[in-house]
Amino acid sequence: MESTVEFTVATAPFARAAARADRLLPPRAARAGGVRLAVAGRQLRLSASGEEAAVWGDVPATVNTDGVVAVGRRALAATLASLDASEVRVRVEGSRLAIRTGSARFALPLLDPAALGPAPEPPPVAGRTPAGAFTAAVAAVAGAASRDGLPLFSGVRVRSDADRLRLAATDRFRLAVASVPWSGEGPVDVLIPAGILAEAARMLAKPETAEVTVLADADRLGLSWAEGGVVVSSLALPYPDAQLERMLGVRPECVMDVDADLLRAAVERAMPFAGPIGTVTLEAADGVVVVRGSDDGAGDSREEVKAQTTGSTTASYQGRYLLDSLRAFGDDRVVLRFQTGIQPTSITAADTDRTELRYLVVPLRKSP
Amino acid sequence: MESTVEFTVATAPFARAAARADRLLPPRAARAGGVRLAVAGRQLRLSASGEEAAVWGDVPATVNTDGVVAVGRRALAATLASLDASEVRVRVEGSRLAIRTGSARFALPLLDPAALGPAPEPPPVAGRTPAGAFTAAVAAVAGAASRDGLPLFSGVRVRSDADRLRLAATDRFRLAVASVPWSGEGPVDVLIPAGILAEAARMLAKPETAEVTVLADADRLGLSWAEGGVVVSSLALPYPDAQLERMLGVRPECVMDVDADLLRAAVERAMPFAGPIGTVTLEAADGVVVVRGSDDGAGDSREEVKAQTTGSTTASYQGRYLLDSLRAFGDDRVVLRFQTGIQPTSITAADTDRTELRYLVVPLRKSP
């Protein structure tokens, strides 16, 4: 194959594939980073890879000349993002890749596709899962990973069970665990950086994908669907699976059933009164939960939210952790299970859907 | 009047007045800063003042006990912003101002209203102008002021003419001048920091105000309308009015009539090719304007946009200045008047509405 191509392609899917390649790979490499365009038969395949991840996207194209070329992925994404023409004609002209619409020509410097290295071989198929449930699970769980702590806590643990794929993340102050339906062919047992997993899962949402194929080996996790796929490297760190399992064994002293949205709104209203570390207190008893914020400087707040309660309790939390966890349940009804002391409070949906989600939030130590 | 009040008030206008007081005054003073609540008859007046500005807002209220109290303006705004109850009951309870809905009570520490100093006397009425035209003029002109340069160039010059109120701002690379209809009673001749003027003008938009009363003396500009008002201090700096006037005397070598939105979109598409300082070239001739970006590293772009042209010219600009100025005209048709050398290019609307707006953009020196 020579460094020459000529093809016509619909702008929207081409722009989407270019944007994905640009977004998934780390920005620090973006200026230098290239994207391969391989055209053959009736298809254009974009592919790009970095140390942490590889991504590809397939777009139907009318191909005049087969070949493989490479251009900068930031430049390609930026050029295609703002076009309003419905299709573009693309071909090599000298040392540039020319992209034409009816009234415009954009010419990107060609890179040497060989310099990008070989496209990595994706890991084998491990199983399949419904894309919507998977995307929801990643969105809910990735938020509980730490943004700036130890690398271990910046990851999402992904493991396959008999018929569920389980995702978990913790920053030690809260823990989120979700599981989704799983038809497995091989095991999944990896720890994926939360940010890149969240970005990869967002790709499934547009256009809507029904089912995602999960690829895995000992060091990598991949997702593949009709339009393309991604492969991400696992963090090579031992995860505290046993501790996580112990935390999930909840022995409640009080159980409360409440509308997640109403409780979240009340916690938000308490936040201006929650003092420097944002302490919000929940007091559950007799068909109501009282949400309090109190701080000498800021004043105090007290709000009642209707709830079904069994037992009674008072516990304080960093309000932002409560907000994050309640947001993950939208306007569903949730069940809060309070334990004694500083053992975590569990939050689950009252009616479980395909994404089984559980959030654990560690309460603040009580002042003496 | 004692430090005691009791009243019931609709939440939405109360929250709006509190948000305005909080937003207009500088954030550095926000924690310490208080807002006065004066209730009498059927009205609640919120007022707050800092070194640069004063703001007030009037809200109809059902008053049980007249009086004046003060609380933190950030705290009041944050509390009211998130309430979903349609009205609130407010009264002094001990050292707190209690704000109650059906299910919640929020208690803010009272401040000493005397410690906030006296509410400043607003300047006298100088004239009246349509609020919509004024808001549009401020939005377009304030963007041309400098964000981080000399204080002189961070201001909007506001002066009254016989039947127009003129606003102008420049950062020396571009100049925006707008004028709006004016029924004057006294002169306006001030220089107002662009950021605070833009914030004040935004207040007029919600709920929509038909006419704004302009207040002015030698050192201050005020805006007043049914729901409230603001007063802002003038910068005490001599403005280069004569130079500004000279810049407005345009002798075009080429005149071009083009759709602002189409030209803006083409300039945006050229930006990825515009190199490190974002150089975009316009080449006008024979019923078309060619928009070019070119940079050795980034490649090049060429796009044609239909235009009516008289004469021909080629000029280069920092693309972001072109974008700012074209955005100010939305999807109107605009007339560009190109001058020779590095004399500024003038942009005006083809059909003038009540806000007469003119943008001048200085081209880049041609490379030899």
UniProtKB/TrEMBL annotation, chains A, B:
<dbReference type="InterPro" id="IPR046938">
    <property type="entry name" value="DNA_clamp_sf"/>
</dbReference>
<keyword id="KW-0963">Cytoplasm</keyword>
<protein>
    <recommendedName>
        <fullName>DNA polymerase-3 subunit beta</fullName>
    </recommendedName>
</protein>
<dbReference type="InterPro" id="IPR022634">
    <property type="entry name" value="DNA_polIII_beta_N"/>
</dbReference>
<dbReference type="InterPro" id="IPR001001">
    <property type="entry name" value="DNA_polIII_beta"/>
</dbReference>
<dbReference type="Pfam" id="PF00712">
    <property type="entry name" value="DNA_pol3_beta"/>
</dbReference>
<feature type="domain" description="DNA polymerase III beta sliding clamp central">
    <location>
        <begin position="134"/>
        <end position="212"/>
    </location>
</feature>
<comment type="similarity">
    <text>Belongs to the beta sliding clamp family.</text>
</comment>
<keyword id="KW-0238">DNA-binding</keyword>
<keyword id="KW-0548">Nucleotidyltransferase</keyword>
<dbReference type="Pfam" id="PF02767">
    <property type="entry name" value="DNA_pol3_beta_2"/>
</dbReference>
<dbReference type="InterPro" id="IPR022635">
    <property type="entry name" value="DNA_polIII_beta_C"/>
</dbReference>
<feature type="domain" description="DNA polymerase III beta sliding clamp C-terminal">
    <location>
        <begin position="255"/>
        <end position="363"/>
    </location>
</feature>
<keyword id="KW-0239">DNA-directed DNA polymerase</keyword>
<keyword id="KW-0235">DNA replication</keyword>
<dbReference type="Pfam" id="PF02768">
    <property type="entry name" value="DNA_pol3_beta_3"/>
</dbReference>
<dbReference type="InterPro" id="IPR022637">
    <property type="entry name" value="DNA_polIII_beta_cen"/>
</dbReference>
<feature type="domain" description="DNA polymerase III beta sliding clamp N-terminal">
    <location>
        <begin position="6"/>
        <end position="113"/>
    </location>
</feature>
<keyword id="KW-0808">Transferase</keyword>
